[in-house]
Structures are given as structure tokens and as C-alpha cells.
Amino acid sequence: MSPAGALHRAGPWLVAAYAGTALALPEVGEGFKVLVLVAGFGGFFWRARGWRFAAPVKLLLAAALVALLSWGLSRLHHPQWAESSPKVHRLTHWFAFLAVAWLLAGRVRPVLLAWGAGLAGLLVAPWFTGRGGYDWFLGWHGERVDFGLHNAQHATLLFATGMLGLIALARRCLGPGPWRLLRGLLWTLATLACAVAVVITQTRGVWLGLAVAALVMLAAAGLALRRRLPPGPRRRWLTGALLAGVLGLALAAACSPIVEQRLADERLARSGADGGCHRQRRRPGGELVGGAALDRRTAPGGVGRQRAFPGAGTLSGAARLDRGGGLPAPAQWLSGYPGQLRPGRPGGAGGAAGLAHP
């Protein structure tokens, strides 16, 4: 077999291996990522002679040039602040899709293989990066969890993307063919798992985006089915069933206790920040929320864990700055994100300490 043929056969499996291990086993995924980039870009510049100077390649070269130029000028004018190396990957890693696209070669089955491996890796990631079933248990009882996937926002975004993909591929997964019952069962379980994960990771922005995307997809599916069916009672029943299903899902999500609690926490934090109110209330789990209390669901180590930041003294779980007698302030006021403590951000803990202690 020629090298080109071997690359053609092995490329989709390399991409699938990387997609399946990137979240659950990051160390292993890094190795597969290197293989994907080397094989993808190597094959692209070796075989794609007519595409070597296409628009994406020019943008890749421009991004590398901007990074090198910026680093060179910083070394020239402010060497004490410059990076030790140009860090070209910060701009060029966005063009990794060139390597992936070349290895998948626009074929449907390799794309589905890579996507399925990525979804499988996402669904098992909580047992490798987080606390497994205990995270699901805590999330089901109202705690905000992130499954160890960087933070809750990233986890919600990933599971929402998986859910949208499953909805888009519902016809392929549930259609006639071999293993139809097994495919339908796996599709149902994966969709339910993604939906539950989206709710218990409690990110309002993703909820809104997912709701809009789901409505658009359902509307497109309804229009397609209406065009295929002749006018008559069946067509009207189908339209009514779709509308009832959309309204039912929207009401079920809106009436969820977890969603109500998340929105109530946000309203309380905003009212306290706007009016200077230091109200506190107790959650079912026992911790205080609002005022100067820190929500344990989003704290990096839970209530009571102390984190030291340069120039900010010691920041306790109750969001106090224990420096110069202490400066009590709600954790939500010290960060750009409610309940999260981020050093070095405008308006963050470091900035507040710098203003309080010149």
C-alpha cells in the first residue's frame, strides 16, 4: 500500500481517536492531537497541490506572521515584558481544521465516526475528569457541577452541542436499517444524558442559545414534513403535535426546580449588587447564598477553602479580603462572573485589592 493510501485509511481513525480521548483522557489525547496535526498538515501540503495557497492557508500564514511580528516588536521595545518564545499557536491553532478536514476528506462515514467518538468521550468524561456518578447525583439535587471539564460553562456548551448534534442526526439514528432497536436505544439514552447535563451545569446563556437553536431545528423539521404530506387532517394533526411538543418542552424546562433556583440566585445577586443589600438565605444543602456568602456550587474548592492571590492577601470561602483588617465584599462583586473568583481580571479580586490598598 502506498503512503498516500495508508494515510487515507488511517486518517479518520486518528481523528476519531483524538476526538474520543481529548476530554476523558487529556494526556492521551495530546499524543493523538500531535499525530493528527502532523499527518493532516503533512498530507495536505504533500498531496493538495491545488490548495496550497487557498484562502484558509493564506489566513494561517497571516496569523503566524502577526504572532511573530508582535513578538519581535515586543522583544525590541520592551524585552522585560516579552514572552520567551513567540507562542505562535495562540493564533494558528484555530486553523487545525485544515488538518482534520484533509484527513476526513469530506466523506460522511469518517465524519460520523469522529463525531460519535467525540460524543462518547464526552459522555464518559465525568468518570475520568470528575467524580463520576456523584456529580450527577449532586447536580440532580440542585448543586451546580462541572464534571471537571474546565468549568460549568464549558461543560454546558459541550453537552448542548452534543444534544443538538443528536437531534440533527435523529433521522439517521432512528431510521430503518440494521440494529435499529439498538441505535434507537443508544440515541435516546445519549440525548437524555446530554439534556440532564445541560440542566444541572446551570449556564443561563447556553440555555437560551439551546432553546433558540432547538426551536429553529424543530421549525425546519416541521416545514419539511408539511411539504411532504398532502393537505388534510394528517397534516393538521402533525402541525398541532409539533407545536404541543415544543410548548411542553419549554414549560417543563421553565418549571424545573433547578432552573428556578438558578434564576432566583441570579436575581438575588443582582438585587444585592444594585441596592447594596447584604441579604442572606439558606439553601437546602445548608450553605448561605447572597450578601457576603459564596455559592459553594461555583467556588473552586467549596465554602471554606482559601486561595491566595498576589496583591490581594488571603481570600476566604466567605469572600473576605483578610488584609489590613479585612474588606468584606460579596464574591459576586469581586469577579466578572457571579460566584467565581478570578484574579487579574478588571474588577476582579486583584483589582479590588489594588484599589483598597494603594
Automatic annotation (TrEMBL):
- The answer to whether keyword Membrane applies is yes
Question: Any idea which UniProt keywords this protein has?
Answer: Membrane, Transmembrane, Transmembrane helix
Q: Does the keyword Isomerase apply?
A: no
Please give the name of this protein.
Answer: O-antigen polymerase
Here the segments flagged for biased composition (Gly residues) are 345-358
**Recorded superkingdom:** Bacteria
> Membrane-spanning residues where?
31-47, 59-76, 88-105, 112-129, 149-169, 181-200, 206-225, 237-259
Stretches of the chain forming a coiled coil according to its record: none
What ranges does the record give for the region Disordered, renumbered to this chain? 272-322, 336-358
| Protein species of origin | Alloalcanivorax profundimaris
